[in-house]
Amino acid sequence: MIIFTQEKRRFFFLLLFTTLALTVHPQSQERPKIENVLDLRECLRIGLENNFDLQIARNEEMISDNNVTLGNAGYLPQVSLNSGYNLRSNNSDQFPAGDTEVVENRNSNTQTLDAGLNLNWSIFEGFKVQTNYQRLKELQSVGELYTLLEMENLIAGLTAEYYNYVQQQIRLGNLQYAVSLSKERLRIVEARYQVGSLSRLDLQQARVDFNADSSQLIQQYEILNRSRIKLNELMGADVESQFMAQDTTIMLNPSLAKDELFDMTMAQNTFLQLSESNLTLSELELKNLQSRNYPYLRLNTGYGFTHYNYNTGNLDRQRSWGPNVGVTLGYTLFDGFNRKREQKNQQITIRNRELEVERDKLVIESDFANMWMAYQNNIELTNLEIESLENATINYEIAMERYQIGDLSGLELREAQNSLLEAEQRLLTAQYNTKLYEISLMQISGKITEFLQ
Description:
By secondary structure, the chain is of the alpha+beta class. The chain has a single domain (6-14, 31-79, 126-298, 338-448), classed as Outer membrane efflux proteins (OEP) (Up-down Bundle). It is built from ten helices and six strands, in the order αβαααββααβααββαα. It has helices spanning 6-9, 40-50, 52-66, 70-73, 128-195, 200-235, 258-268, 270-290, 338-404, 410-444; strands at 37-38, 78-94, 103-124, 244-245, 296-310, 317-330. The chain has a four-stranded antiparallel sheet with strand order 2-3-5-6, with no helix packed on it. The protein has a two-stranded parallel sheet with strand order 1-4. A hairpin with a 6-residue loop joins strand 5 and strand 6. The longest helix is centred in the middle third of the chain and has 68 residues, at 128-195.
């Protein structure tokens, strides 16, 4: 079911998660089975525990958390241990000066065994390490925001589907009532037909109307079942689980205040926060590039041991061991103007991110204004439909009284019955649409989690 328009939804979908591999296979967990009466809070609780998209988002957030370490930023040195063994077998001929005899060496073997402990540490790289750590922290915040965004989307979608389920339950009750009215009319017509006060045409029309209402009722069972399956899917539950919604009406929140919602929208809208985080990441990337404007200082140290075995020459074996230390100071004098080009391009990227933030603010302001106007209009429409339903109910009661005494035709009674059913359906639609805009306003302002309370 669609809560927002196409334009609105583009600001709430998750671009980064479209390429992520599933960390939990849906079939690897036993899905909870639900067979009782559920209220909205319980549906949300189950969904927050079992929804697969939210689980994936939480796992991705854990990866971002795990990446925030001093070692990943480059603060810590790298220490390695290595050893090796080498065997060399040589044949040689030596030709001394003069007429002396050639000295031949055959199968001259040299065995070398070495081991070492090495430490490499970048002491200074133009503040690159500090910038990397800030970037990791910002990516951690981005991971938290994406999880929050996924949770808000789940709460909004699940809440909307829950009230759709409530709506379909009420529609089912209305259609059951319509069938009972048609059945009562059919009983009256059959009784009058038996005594000859009504024609066969009246009887056939009453049967046609009864069958038409019964057909709508059967279709409504299917619609109700689809909504229940969708709710189970959002909750990560067994799609065959049977339950009923506890709510018997769609309750609206009368306490929404435009100014308060607007201030919260501009202050804590999750999508805006993500847009601002993208700007921060671009600024950190520029600092990272600017670190190449500075010299670098690196420390290399270690401890080594080497053992040689000979089978020729004056020495039988030889050993050497000891520490080594070195410092490298360097600076890139010229790199084909690439450093300047990359920094200039990154400054343009930062400007684009600033423009995107301003654009997103304007679009969200526009979305909020449209949502608020639609919300107010649907409240007025709901009040109007309440009055219409009251009038349609009175009209049907009067029509039924006149029909029972024979002062009203079956077609006129049917028209009054259809007017009553249509008034009930219009009121339900107005209430549900109002609830959808209420959910949208709560989501865009960052207050959607209040449905958990």
